[in-house]
Amino acid sequence: MPESPEVQALVEDLGTRLAGREITDVDVVEFRAAKTRSRPPTSLRGERVSGATRHGKHVDLAVGDAHLVVSLGRHGWARYAKGDADASESEGPDADAPPTLVVLTFDDGTVVELTDAGDWVSLGCWVVDDPREVPAVAKLGADPADPGFTRADFDRVVVGRRKQVKAVLQEQESLAGIGNAYSDEILHLAKISPVTHAAALTDDELDRLFDATVGTIRSAIEHQRGVPIDQLKAAKIASMRVHGRAGETCPVCGDTVLDFSFASTTAQYCPTCQTGGERLPLRAAG
């Protein structure tokens, strides 16, 4: 699932390539991707892009007086069609590429394809006057990547919560942009068990968790910045210390990284660094 560092790199790339460009054609291949049926993406033909921004895990293209807001969902992404002058050789569809749901063509020949690799359509597009008209954007909490994000913002949504801390980190209404992967990385850096309730955290643990949250997200954004968008997934995977590395050696203590089940997904942790040696059950309680 794309998280804020990858989405930030994506919007910066899109903004650089598309600012000032006119949309000459829009093809909605999968009608379920269009969420504002009375105002479909095709209504943006003839309008110019003025910029791209990010709201949590959402992409926001400012087009004319409107906004094309794209929720990448669980498996959504964007690619430049192969043959674009500035696209890398590895970009573009092939036999194993995810299907294209929406195609945007621009006056300089650039073609952007919005894709979804899932078994069900999770990518969605809204055409709105204000991004906050998209319910998920309107509900977003403070973003740890924002330079204005403070310890007070963090404490407001974490301190005293009777909920597992990993769940709090992934709760978009509390902290925007963090998903399964970076929450694993944050908790490993903070040396906190993912199943500990936020209300049980000590002052020292809260200090570590705040620093790890801000540091992990901001450093990941810097690490991903400038990486070609077709290589961002690989760059993210390569940067992980524990997420996706069950059975491998923890780079901090040398113990073996283990799996545990979290909601409908599987997450990873180091028992020595995070749980005092305790092995979490594979199917953790909610």
UniProtKB/TrEMBL annotation:
Recorded superkingdom: Bacteria
Any one biological process term the GO annotation gives: base-excision repair
Domain FPG-type: residue ranges: 241-275
Domain Formamidopyrimidine-DNA glycosylase catalytic, chain residue ranges per copy: 2-121
A GO molecular function held by the record: damaged DNA binding
SMART domains: Fapy_DNA_glyco (SM00898), H2TH (SM01232)
Stretches that traverse the bilayer: none
Reaction(s) this enzyme catalyzes, per UniProt: Hydrolysis of DNA containing ring-opened 7-methylguanine residues, releasing 2,6-diamino-4-hydroxy-5-(N-methyl)formamidopyrimidine
Cofactor dependence: Zn(2+)
One Pfam family here: H2TH
Matches recorded under InterPro entries: FPG_cat (IPR012319), FPG_N (IPR035937), H2TH_FPG (IPR015886), Ribosomal_uS13-like_H2TH (IPR010979), Znf_DNA_glyclase/AP_lyase (IPR000214), Znf_FPG/IleRS (IPR010663)
Keywords, in A-Z order: DNA damage, DNA repair, DNA-binding, Glycosidase, Hydrolase, Lyase, Metal-binding, Multifunctional enzyme, Zinc, Zinc-finger
Membership in a protein family: Belongs to the FPG family.
Protein name: Fpg/Nei family DNA glycosylase
Protein's organism: Agromyces fucosus
Lineage: Bacteria, Bacillati, Actinomycetota, Actinomycetes, Micrococcales
